[in-house]
Amino acid sequence: TTMLEKGNISIHTENIFPIIKKWLYSDHEIFLRELISNAVDAISKLNMVSRSSDFTGEVGEPEITIAIDKDAKTISISDNGIGMTADEVKKYINQVAFSSAEEFVTKYKDNADQNIIGHFGLGFYSSFMVSDRVDIDTLSYQDGATAIHWTCDGTTSFEISDSERTEQGTTITLHLMEEEAEYLETSRIQQLIKTYCDFMPVPIKLDGEVANKQNAPWKQSPSGLSDDEYLELYRYLYPFQEEPLLWVHLNTDYPFVVNGILYFPKLRPDVDVTKGQIKLFCNQVFVSDNCEEIIPQFLLPLRGVVDSTDIPLNVSRSFLQNDRTVRRIADYIAKKVGDRLKELYRSDKTKYIECWQDLGTFVKFGSLNNDKFKQQIADFVIFRTTAELASDQPKVEVQSGEDDAWQSADGENAAAVDAKGNAYTTLKEYLERNQDKHENRVFYATDEVSQATYIDLHKRQGLEVLYLDSFIDTHFVPFLEQEYSDVKFSRVDSDLDDTLIDESAGGDIVDPTTNKTKGERVKELFEQSLNKPKVTIRTDALKSDDAQGAPPAIVLL
Ligand code: ADP
Ligand code: MG
């Protein structure tokens, strides 16, 4: 084939512009987030520039001001940042999808300890979602720069003229459309600042008052944060909720940037664990509330903040699920959560056990859902047991409430016994402890109350029973059976015949009329007893030594 022509695709701005305005963002309200982000960037840039040797200008206290003029139907966003020269306005504003961020960061990389939020060069145009007209008044920090006025009515033509502005920085003024009058309400703007800009590092003034919190603890180093500071953030993000059990501080720069703090809440029935409650940020700018695509499903009950510049934001959610970086971030988060549990198990077993009621559900769900997590956590899955485990240390006395119980510091060898005297064990410990009595055999109960008689029967036989009685255990037992394929798992109310009785007289037929073995008879009687609450069964005679050879002394009382 012969090449006939080679060329560049061109775009008709008149046609593409309405599409950008209308479809780029789903929510009109994010215009404020975008303009404030630009203002923060402008301030960060000035800061970086000011540290280069040839800088002769001035840097004031960083500040962003939002002013509403109800009569003129305008809202304006002002910053005292870097400003723009006429050339910069032409370059970065007049060209859609052209950002100065990369250029800037490359030029000032030696001073680049601050992050630039901008990236795509589209944010500014979100202002046309709510405005008939947008004005820019700006004065660059550069020597001899003159103030510039830019105006555009949402078509593809603009005007540039001189501006009366005298202070360095930029003011963006939006002439709001009739139907966007809600943004003339101070309370609405306040709410938007709280939602999107609360943790941005520059004070944002509205009506003379600072409307944002600024400090983003997750960006700090974990060693610099006290427990109180972690708890304070939790209470701030999730007011009127119970205190979290523990937290994990995410902090990595390589191979992707992720900062964040994840909290394990107490799982109360009113907590909807299917709806993600983790807040996703990008450079301290709030992005969204449910980040199911980034957080592995089993970690959705967690709360807190994930802040990453490496999560592509302006793309569809289904794309996110298939994005490699996003998947690696998800793995990273799961691993950090596993590490935290491991560390707690080793350093403070008492607290681990106290939290197990809630943690266990995460851990089991995670083991079922995520292979890597399963392997990582396998040795730290514990079960309440009927065994009376000796405690290496005096038992913790708890006067009131459970909360203080785990405050007492215990070491690695702390007893696996909680404040109520319940003992806990890992499966490995169970198997080791019982290998002489019943090798590769686990007895478990799924309901402490309705299976009480069976549990008791096992205990009297000197057999240790594990409780697998949380709602997730219905799925977890088959999982264990698969994982430990050489171990037999016997529920206390089944398999009675060959477990309890075998060693003594299990196989013998004890009832010539029905041809039933002793084991079958015991089982039958227990089953009958379950339907008659008043009936109890004396099983003392079943103990292997006196049951030897003798007929079963089971008495219905
Ligand atoms: P991005 O922020 O992704 O770069 P925007 O469309 O939001 O894209 O902004 C385009 C460019 O306009 C920015 O890169 C910056 O150079 C310039 N700009 C926008 N707002 C300001 C401002 N308040 N002060 C200085 N420059 C600004
Ligand atoms: Mg921007």
Automatic annotation (TrEMBL):
ATP binds at E34, N38, D79, M84, T170, R317. Signal peptide: none annotated. Keywords: ATP-binding, Chaperone, Cytoplasm, Nucleotide-binding. The keyword Cytoplasm applies. Residues 27-180 form the Histidine kinase/HSP90-like ATPase domain. GO terms for molecular function: ATP binding; ATP hydrolysis activity; ATP-dependent protein folding chaperone; unfolded protein binding. It comes from the Bacteria. Belongs to the heat shock protein 90 family. This is Molecular chaperone HtpG. The chain holds residues 2 to 558 of 659 of the full protein.
